[in-house]
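This protein record is not my work; I was only asked to verify it. Where you disagree with what is written, explain briefly why. This is what I was given:
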Amino acid sequence: MEFQTINYEVRDSKVAVLTFNRPESFNAFNKQLVLECCQAVHMAARDEQVRVLVMTGAGRAFSAGGDLAWLRAADDNIKKREILDLANEMAITLAGFEKIIIAAVNGVAAGAGTAVVLACDMAVASTQARFAPNFVHIAAVPDTAASWYLPRKLGYHKAAELMLTGSLLDARQAYELGLFNHLVEPEQLMPYTLELASKLAAGPQRALRYIKKMLKMSLSNDLPAQVEVEASLQLMAWSDSDFMEGVSAFIQKRPPAFK
C-alpha cells in the first residue's frame, strides 16, 4: 500500500517502523494521516512477520497534535464530530494492537501527539524530545484518550497539573516522571530503539502478548479478578512450546530459541 503522509516499512528483524511524514507541519494529524496511521497499524496487526511496531516522526517533531487548519475548516458540529470520531478511531486502534509498540520520540510530542506516546507500551526519547499535553492553550480539552492515559501514568494530581497548565516538559523532566523509558542522544534514538525492538521480536511472542494484555486488564480489575486473569493466561503460556523451550534452556544454561 502506498501512503502519502506516513512511511511504513518492515525490517528483516520482524520490526515494522511507522513514521509520521508531514515534517513541514511538525507531523500534525490531519484526516489523511490519521486514516493512514490506522491502516498501517492494522497491516502490522495482520502481518505475521511483524512482531514489534515502532512509531516515530520525520524531521524535528514526533507530532504537534491535531492540525489546526483541519480543525478551523470544521465549521459545524457534524464536521467537528467527524474529526473527534477519527481521533477516537486512532486511539482505539492503538489500544487494540496486541503486539508491542515502542514510541521513538524524536522531537516535540504535543496535544494528541502526547496521547499517541502514552498509548505505546514503551517510549525511547531523544534528548531533544518535548512532551506537552497542552490542549488548554487553544481552549480545548484533551482528546485521543490523553485524559485516560495520563492519570493512570502519573496519578490524578500530576496529570491535572500538566493538563490544566498545558505544561511543556523537556526530555529530562518527562523521563524523570516516567513518561519515557529511555533517554538517548539524538543520533542514537533509532539505533537504540531498533535494537530494543529486535530483542523483543526475538522473544516468546505469545507470552509477550499475554503480559501486555494482563497489564492492561490490571488497570480496571480488582485483585481477585486480576489473579484470575493471571491464572488463565499462565495456563495458556504453560501450554505453549516456547515455555518448554524456555525451561529447557534455563536448565541447560543456554540461550532459548523461541519459535
Observations:
- The two ends are 29 Å apart (CA to CA).
- The mean pLDDT is 96.
- The longest helix spans residues 77-95.
- The CA atoms of residues 88 and 144 lie 6 Å apart.
